[in-house]
Fold each of these.
Amino acid sequence: MIYPLAGLVLGALSGLLGARRRGGRGLDLLQWTTVGAIIGGLLGTFVLIAIQRSLV
């Protein structure tokens, strides 16, 4: 159950750092942090599903 949460946090950090590196302002940082969190959470969910299916 920790994989989606870890993906969410890592994705948010990745989006934030990427936007900051490109010189984004406040709303840019918020948008890219949100996008990164969504993508990371989805990837974490897919990893969790793959692990659960391989154990059965």
Note: The two ends are 16 Å apart (CA to CA).
Amino acid sequence: MDKALREQGLTVPQYACLEVLAARPGMSNADLARATFVTRQSMNVVMRGLQDAGLIDRPGTVDVGRARPTTLTPEGRRRLQGAQESVYAIEARMVRAVPERRLAALLADFDRIAEALDG
């Protein structure tokens, strides 16, 4: 995935940030950091790179508070779509590598792991 994203001019944290923003536009730096499992300081670096590349837009100031809502630019949506095509193709290859008779059990195991992490 890292190699495929590098070919799209993105890092894994940048891709994760774009994915989250596509689903939930307007998130703040702190919200994005939590959603992508990085520190706020690391997310600042990620967002600066995305903003410099013209992939996200954040207002310079806000009327209330300090959180600046972030949205994808048209170029950000285009770049995300190209990256998704690559990432989803990798995901499909991974799934095809699991014998069909074992796939349901593997997915159930992943669900149990995720539930264990939530609790």
Note: The chain has a mean pLDDT of 91.
